[in-house]
Amino acid sequence: MAEPVVSTILTQLALLTSQELKLLWGVDKEVEKLISNFQAIQAVIEDAEYRQVKELAVRHWLDKLKEVSYDIDDVLDKWITTSKKFQMKKVENASKLWKKVSISFDCFFCKKVSLRHEIAFSIRDLKETLDTIAMEKNSFNFSPTVSTSTQLEHKITTSFIDLLEVQGRDDYKNTLINLLLIESSQAPIIHIISIVGMGGIGKTTLARIAFNDDKVNTHFDKKIWVCVSVPFVETNIAKAILESLTDVAPNVSELETMLRKIRQSLEGKKFLLVLDDVWTETPDDWKQLKNSLKCASKGSKIIMTTRKESTAKIMGATNMIPLGKLSDNESWLLFTQIAFFGKTKEKCEKFIDIGRKIVDKCKGLPLALKTLGSLLSLKSEVEEWQRALDSNLWGIDKIEAELFPTLLLSYYDLSSILKKCLSYCALFPKDYVIEKDALIKLWMAQGYLGNEEMELVGEKYFNTLVMRSFFQDFEKSEYDNNIIRCKMHDIVHDCIQSIAKNECSYIEFESPTMPQFEISTKSIRHVLIKLSSIPPYILNLKLRSLVVETERNDFTLNTSLSKKLTCLRTLALNLGWGKANLEGIKNLIHLRHFELHSITTVILSEALCDLYNLRTLDLTGCWNLRKLAQGIGKLVNLRHLLILRTFSLEYIPKGVERLSCLRTLNKFIIAGDGYNKKACTSLDCLKNLKLNQRSLELELGNVRDINALKLAYLESMKNLLDLVLRKWRHINIAFPKLKVLRFGYLTEWKEWHFETSEYTDEDSTIFETSECIDEDITIMPYLHFLSMIDCPELKAIPDQILRTPTLQHLEISDCDILRESYKTEDGRSKFSHIPKITID
Q1: Residue 389 pLDDT more than 70?
Q2: The pLDDT of residue 512 is above 60
Q3: Does some domain include residue 583?
Q4: Residues 338 and 316 both lie in one domain
Q5: Predicted pLDDT of residue 523
Q6: Are residues 201 and 302 in the same domain?
């Protein structure tokens, strides 16, 4: 996918002011030519992306375009970064008159002057390369407009079906038929039932089953089947409906005339209309046609099949049936019905074990099961079945001819930037659990989400891919039903990987010096590896993403290694309790996403704070990390600071309050005495930040100033659902929308009230007194889950909390007094209305 890179470059060029161009010593004309070439290429690149599927020469041209585009992107990003850092340096030193500062600033200025020469020469060289590529463009006769239908053919479907070839789907079939037969006075005039699912999942088959059901046949006066596909043209659909109703091809072409004839044919009649394979997302596309159908008798139904949930909603679906994959048993029956057809039971025996493995490979996708079953029905040797099992599915001609185009239709219906977001998922191995928020941050690092409100854009893109059936096996939050994690179907993954194979790669094998496969192209930009060390040939690639997942290993990013990874936008290290040495981090000037997971020992160098472009710093699980870089306030573009499970972390540097772009800080430590000059000692440090997160862990140090503990300073966190309080002795409630509240390790906490009136340090314990609170007042009216862990001195949970009507689960562990009180009849009566109670 070259289009997003081209768009990024044009945006960067627009950011360069005329003054900055003059500083590049005479390359303003070259920059003008770059802009002209990229604009011309951008106009036809969509056609090139489509044509590369069938034309090898176009694919090679796009590869060359991507190579030079990435190189230009790196050069421009380096120049913009240096310019911004230079401006920051001027502001920092504006009021400092010391000679030492002046010398330091002069050195920085000299480096910038030297960099201008370097960038000017690079732009000239790259401009010449782009000139050649732009000239080659003309030989392909690309079109500035293109339609998916000109490149990939949509199969025309009919209503005919051999029911002997159908396995499973009984629940779905019964649901659909019941919806068709049900009569209700509350039903709308046009009752639309949508079947939604990925390509090849069996939507059309299910519609055919219902269309040909005996009860359905007798229930409707008229039945009509129309294959819609792309584009959605009302005149074509009206013509198909009219032909089905009259059994004669209409000799009129005017939409008005056809709609009048349809009304005449359907008036007062109960009809069933199937619109198969609908793709449109424009409500007006079928507004007139829909209105013409309202003349029919009440009880008329429309079945619509689509891959896009958004289409179902736009078309006005009354009911939606999300079609899932076949069960293991249904998959086996469907496969064997085709693959074993005509074979005796004895001949089938030798294929059963390997056949089950092949069925597993299809992951419940009916089209894949049918295609492979049909292919293998002609194979009589076990070795031939084994080759089908061992091969990549896209290496099998029959699969490529029948299944691959079906899935490609969904891919090429996406916008160019959504194609890029989806193809990036080829970085992950099959069956990989994809964390939604983590994926959005990875997209952000690659520049796919623009520059403003990136998280909202990423959420929108993710939901679009969900609604278009690219993801499955969703894990949702029990509190607000938002998707947290998902997977990609293996065969969809194969399809996406085949598209992105020249850009994304997953590598896993025993020895880094003896790979099981050879990287055949230098155009790979994103790599996920599961190795004990980075193989040498990886360093010859101009990587933009390097994700390392390994067990109990050490990683050293020395200066020599970092200079070979200078193009990185993402560096993610999950070392399984290994150690990390990051002395060379300062060379990764383009880095946007830096992730250290589950690392035993790591010391964050102050050089980290020179990474001007950093958007995400994820230190989750670095349990031995004692200090963050003190100059963290210099990371002015940082949006996400993730530090959960950093149990040894002593404090949050005071500079965090200067991070105006920060959207997530999922753990905050209120430091006590001894850190006053360099640490955040009050929640006041967060009050001006625009944090927009769903969970927060607050840890309390040895704080003596009660005003430092006011949770009201966090009132701007409107989306907070989950609050964890650790080592607290004072509880003040300030979140009326909170759904999850966890208390942990509050060993000296005795009383829980809501209004603080005095403070005492007797036994190092903060006590609270309060005036009587009206019994009708409910605190935290949306609370769903309350957890109390290791609060042995706490005497009671306030009635205002316990009577929260939404409270579904109360967890009490290592809370001696609370546990004992629950044993009494009075104590049990206070908890009796809560559906789930866990007491350890």
Answers
A1: yes
A2: no
A3: no
A4: no
A5: 78
A6: yes
Q: Report pLDDT digits (tens) over 165-175.
A: 677 788 999 99
CA-CA-CA-CA torsion for 363, 368, 372, 377, nearest 10 degrees? 100
Task: Name the least confident of 143-152, 368-377, 578-587, 655-664.
Answer: 143-152
Residue 231: cis peptide before it, omega within 30 degrees of 0: yes
How many CA atoms lie less than 13 Å away from 777 in the CB half-sphere? 7
Report whether 626 contacts 652 (CB < 8 A). Answer: no
Note the pTM of the prediction, 2 decimals.
Answer: 0.79
Co-location of 66 and 139 in the same domain: yes
Task: Name the token pair of 311.
Answer: 């289409």
Q: What is the DSSP letter of 297?
A: P
Cβ atoms of 124 and 27 closer than 8 Å? yes
Taking the CA atoms of the chain, what radius of gyration do you get in angstroms?
32
Euclidean distance between CA atoms 617 and 596, whole angstroms: 8
Per residue in 800-837, pLDDT (tens digit) is 888 888 899 999 999 999 988 888 888 788 888 899 99
Neighbours of 768 (CB within 10 A): 20
Residue 286: partners with Cβ closer than 8 Å, 6 or more residues away: 232, 234, 237, 280, 315
Secondary structure string (H, E, C) spanning 683-698: HHHHCCCCCCCCEEEE
Overall average pLDDT of the 728-742 stretch = 69
Q: Which amino acid is at 804?
A: T
Average pLDDT value for residue range 95-113 = 54
CB distance 804 to 783 below 8 Å: yes
Residue 385 belongs to what domain range? 328-395
The answer on pLDDT for 644 being more than 60 is yes
Q: How confident is the model at residue 99 (pLDDT cuts 50, 70, 90)?
A: very low
Give backbone dihedrals phi and psi of 165, rounded to 5 degrees, phi first.
-95, 10
Distance CA 390, CA 386 (A): 6
Q: Which residues contact 500 (CB under 8 A, 6 or more apart)?
A: 1, 423, 424, 426
CATH of the domain at 433: 1.10.10.10
Q: Give residue 150's pLDDT band: very low, low, confident or very high (50, 70, 90).
A: very low
CA dihedral 526, 530, 533, 537 (to 10 degrees): -40
The encoded tokens of residue 118 equal 């370097």
| Sign of the torsion formed by the C-alpha atoms of 240, 242, 244 and 250 | negative
DSSP string, 750-813: ----S-------GGG------PPPPTT--SSTT--EEEEES-TT-----HHHHT-TT--EEEEE
Q: Helix (H, G, I), strand (E, B), or coil: what is residue 289?
A: helix
The CA angle 825-747-673, to the nearest 5 degrees, is 150
C-beta of residue 50 within 8 angstroms of C-beta of residue 230: no
Q: How does DSSP assign 8-22, residue by residue?
A: HHHHHHHHS-HHHHH
CB atoms within 10 A of CB 98: 9
Both structure tokens of 41: 């290429």
Residue 20 sits in the same domain as residue 110: yes
On whether the CB atoms of residues 356 and 332 are closer than 8 A, the answer is yes
In DSSP terms, 571 is beta-bridged to 546, 594
Helix, strand counts (H, E) of the chain: 27, 24
**Rounded to 5°, angle at Cα 30 from 24 and 31:** 75
Same-domain check for residues 111 and 204: no
- Give me the number of domains the chain comprises: 5
N-terminal to C-terminal alpha carbon distance within the chain = 54
